[in-house]
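Thread: quick sanity check before group meeting

JM: Hey all, I'm pulling together slides for Thursday and realized we never actually wrote out the predicted structure for the chain we discussed last week. Dropping the sequence here so it's in one place. If anyone has concerns about the input, flag it before I start.
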Amino acid sequence: MGSTPFRGDLLSQQAGAERLSTFGQLIGSIGHELRNPLGVMESSLYIVKGRVVDDERAQKHLDRIGEQIGIANAIIKDLLDMIRDRPLATSRLCLLDVLQSAANQLHLAVSLEAIADLPEVEGDASQLRQVFVNLLDNAVHAAGASGSVRVDGAVEDGAVAVAIEDSGPGVDDATRRRLFEPLVTTKQKGIGLGLALVKRIVERHEGGIEYEPREGRGARFVVRLPVGK
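JM (edit): ok, ran it. Output follows.
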């Protein structure tokens, strides 16, 4: 007897869950192991910087080392956040405040008038801020120095939809099919955790996220969250 499509779907889902579990165990182990040497580097860097205060060139290189250690720590944090199921600290939230906080974190000036009158949602302010920090940061990188980023909002069938658009090159078809999987990225720098983490956080809020191609050039990501009860 041949396999039915339903059975095939179940087997595919089971295989995906097993891969995710293995990925999570590996990431957790690597992340914790890397934090110790990075901590030693930070401590040693602090001591060395205090001893070369008169050497401007050395200070410049030490600053660069510090920046790279910060990037490594941020990558580890994203990895560990993606595999954790931390309880959501939910409250009634105004998405305008969440988006403004995300934009401030990136030192980004973007108009948020389109979402000013959206209804409140129930959610974890810190985690939702991270969602929009990642999406806005991606949009800024895609748009480039001469491009633009736009935020739009609407209420659709009991859900609040927030769209972030950019005027960049968009995403090719091959990448689009795997866009929200771990380790998939269109950036020259980065390891492709941002959108996977965004998807996980949004789904934990009983919402969803979609990529919508724009006419001509650019990308549009839409986050949908249930209206607060």
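AS: nice. The chain is about 50% helix and 15% strand. Residues 5-49 form the longest helix (45 residues).
JM: adding both to the slides.
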